[in-house]
Amino acid sequence: MSAEIINGKELAQQLKDNMKNEVTELRDKGITPHLTVVLIGDNPASKSYVKGKKKASAETGISSDIIELPDSTSEEKLLQLISELNNDPEVDGILVQLPLPEHIAEQKVIEYIDPGKDVDGFHPVNIGRMMTGKDTFLPCTPFGIVTMLKSKNIAISGQHVVVIGRSNIVGKPVGQLLLNENATVTYCHSKTKGLKQFTKMADILIVAVGIPGAIGADHIKPGAAIIDVGINRLADGSLTGDVDFEEAKEVASYITPVPKGVGPMTITMLLQNTIKAAKGRKA
Ligand SMILES: NC(=O)C1=CN([C@@H]2O[C@H](COP(=O)(O)OP(=O)(O)OC[C@H]3O[C@@H](n4cnc5c(N)ncnc54)[C@H](OP(=O)(O)O)[C@@H]3O)[C@@H](O)[C@H]2O)C=CC1
Ligand SMILES: Nc1nc(=O)c2c([nH]1)NC[C@@H]1CN(c3ccc(C(=O)N[C@@H](CCC(=O)O)C(=O)O)cc3)C=[N+]21
Fold first, then answer.
1. What CA–CA distance (Å, rounded) separates 138 from 205?
2. Per the CATH hierarchy, to which homologous superfamily does domain 31-114 belong?
3. Element spanning 101, H or E
4. Residue ranges per domain, the chain?
5. pLDDT per residue over 55-98, tens digit each?
6. Cβ(210) to ligand 1 under 6 A?
7. Using CA positions, which residue lies closest to atom 7 of ligand 1?
8. Phi, psi of 199 (to 5 degrees)
9. The whole model's pTM is what?
């Protein structure tokens, strides 16, 4: 038996089609959601993600612009720009593409963004609201993952979720969101001893490590749902996840592919958050 594939690209398209109608209605009322993306430096991967965000915005009628600045941009100059965007009444959402150059303190920049415009959901105020179960901007990748699980009616409540990875943008918040949905959550990371003994207990296994092939069939409990967050570019230019897909799909009940899995959902949730920001500010 081969696992059912959760096609994130298709689900993202359905959600964008719905959003397009919502944006049309908002625009008829004179409200055009606007997203500003700030891109520092010329990391090719970041450039390609940012292009994807612009394209997806246009598809739904959300207006967007990209502010590109050189690698040499000072922290002070970036904070100044954020302060202008915070005060610009036309701007609903601000996204500063990560990672930032080494000389800029990432956390300081994140905390400078107006929480009401923080469509990434990375500001400590929004993280705190998420942790306490309040309405807020949910971080896009975790929000996308929960949306994918729900789209397939995969049970979350009472299930054992194992998350591999504890970054502030993926691992930690996805565990928190699933805890809010009444899952029992275990976190694993690079210091975890005996990783397999944990992963084999997972009803839902979320892999956000950044190592191709980190997880194989022998890590997986038969019938588990596997969410592969990893985006790794191989030497031949192709993209691959953290899970050995061919092997894993023979053991799992559901699995997300890379590409066309979690990635497109991340962008779609960003658009959702931008609409929410516009409604919160302009409506
Ligand atoms: N699809 C999407 O939309 C997105 C995809 N990504 C991708 O997801 C992956 C993870 O991203 P991100 O969370 O930002 O990455 P980070 O590099 O910030 O975090 C990686 C995590 O994996 C853990 N880890 C590393 N090696 C091992 C190991 N051998 N065993 C167990 N755990 C390990 C690390 O542990 P420790 O904390 O101890 O160092 C860390 O917590 C990347 O491939 C990234 O490109 C990221 C964002 C969005
Ligand atoms: N402030 C900030 N917010 C982010 O949300 C953010 C970030 N910084 N930095 C980098 C990570 C990574 N990320 C991805 C988004 C979409 C795809 C995506 O759409 N991937 C496609 C493939 C795209 C391609 O072919 O290149 C897919 O998986 O099918 C991947 C990765 C957002 N991130």
1. 20
2. Leucine Dehydrogenase, chain A, domain 1 (3.40.50.10860)
3. none
4. 31-114, 140-263
5. 999 999 999 999 999 999 999 999 999 999 999 999 999 999 99
6. yes
7. 230
8. -60, -30
9. 0.98
